[in-house]
Structures are given as structure tokens and as C-alpha cells.
Automatic annotation (TrEMBL):
Residues 26-90 form the RNA polymerase sigma-70 region domain. This is RNA polymerase sigma factor. One of its GO terms (biological process) is DNA-templated transcription initiation. The keyword Transcription regulation applies. CDD domains: Sigma70_r4. Belongs to the sigma-70 factor family. ECF subfamily.
Length: 181
């Protein structure tokens, strides 16, 4: 028996089918929260964003029309909620939150990698919001430029421009010691 598509499930959710909604949540909640966590840098806020996005899916289900893939529509909701959240609450990073070094033989290498990762995340977090969304959707979520364009409400060349500008900014901030990955 074939598994129901997201679009089929949305048709059922539109009739208040809680089981279909749970199936959609099971399929998409973790990815929505993961994207929001990478975008916002805050796990608790990301969970709240993902829950709010899914609540909006439930509420909008009767009006939903499959003009785009369900996943594209959900990402668009999550991106918009993340953008709204960033506009509302600017937070300062906590100082002194480093974890203790691991005493394993390769602890130094892991610490250096962590510093590089923190530098990368800080650089990504400092990108303008649309560039950050394009980078995260493309490289961390693995979405095509066409799908990212649908999510961000722009064209494929627009996404490519956002990516070029974001990569240029990241290279300028990270310098030659980063591998651009």
C-alpha cells in the first residue's frame, strides 16, 4: 500500500482529520525545528517556531490549495516566523558558555574545529536575513534553488544572487583559513 502524499494528507487535515495532521507533523516537525534552530541559533525558540508553523498549517488547512509542494509552503511559513521572531527579539550572546575541553587525545583538534564552526555560525548569523535563509535552505536543508525561490518568494536568479552575496560575505569574514564548506 502506498504512503499518502503530503498533499493527500493536507486534504484530510482540511476536514479536521487529526491522524493525518499527526502524520504530517511526524514527517516535517524535526526538519522545521532544525531549520529554525540553524536560522535563529536558539533551540527553545526553534521548537516554538516549529510548533507555531504546524499550528498555522492546521488552521490554514481548509483554505490551502496545492499550488506548491506542501514542504515548500511549510518552509515559507517557518522562514517568515523566523524573520518575524528576529525582528521582535534581538538577543545578546552569552559570554563564558564554552564547554569544558574533552580529555580525549584529539581534544585540541576538536576544539579547533569547534572554534571554526562557531566562527562559521557567527558569520552566517550576521548575514542579512534573506541571504542567511538562502544559505541555510540551500546548503543545510539541501533544497534546490527553484524550491528556495518558491519559499523566499523570489526568482531562481534572485536566489543565486543571494547565495553569491552570502558566500562573498562569508569568505570576507572567515578569511583564507576556512575551507568554504
Amino acid at each position: 500500500m502506498r504512503e499518502a502524499s503530503d498533499e493527500d494528507l493536507m486534504a484530510r487535515v482540511a476536514t479536521a482529520d487529526a491522524a493525518a495532521f499527526r502524520t504530517l507533523c511526524d514527517r516535517h516537525a524535526a526538519r522545521a525545528a532544525g531549520f529554525a534552530r540553524r536560522f535563529l541559533g536558539d533551540a527553545q525558540d526553534a521548537e516554538d517556531i516549529a510548533q507555531e508553523a504546524l499550528l498555522r498549517v492546521w488552521r490554514a488547512a481548509p483554505r490551502w490549495r496545492p499550488t506548491a509542494a506542501f514542504g515548500t509552503w511549510l518552509y515559507r511559513i517557518v522562514v517568515n516566523l523566523c524573520l518575524n521572531h528576529r525582528r521582535k527579539a534581538r538577543f545578546l550572546p552569552l559570554d563564558g558558555t564554552e564547554e569544558a575541553a574533552d580529555p580525549a587525545p584529539d581534544a585540541l583538534a576538536r576544539m579547533e574545529r569547534r572554534e571554526d564552526d562557531l566562527g562559521l555560525w557567527a558569520a552566517v548569523a550576521d548575514l542579512p536575513e534573506r541571504q542567511r535563509a538562502a544559505i541555510l535552505l540551500t546548503y543545510w536543508e539541501g533544497l534546490s534553488n527553484a524550491r528556495v525561490a518558491d519559499i523566499l518568494g523570489t526568482s531562481v536568479p534572485g536566489v543565486e544572487t543571494l547565495l553569491v552575496r552570502a558566500r562573498r560575505s562569508l569568505r570576507g569574514r572567515l578569511g583564507p583559513h576556512q575551507n568554504g564548506g
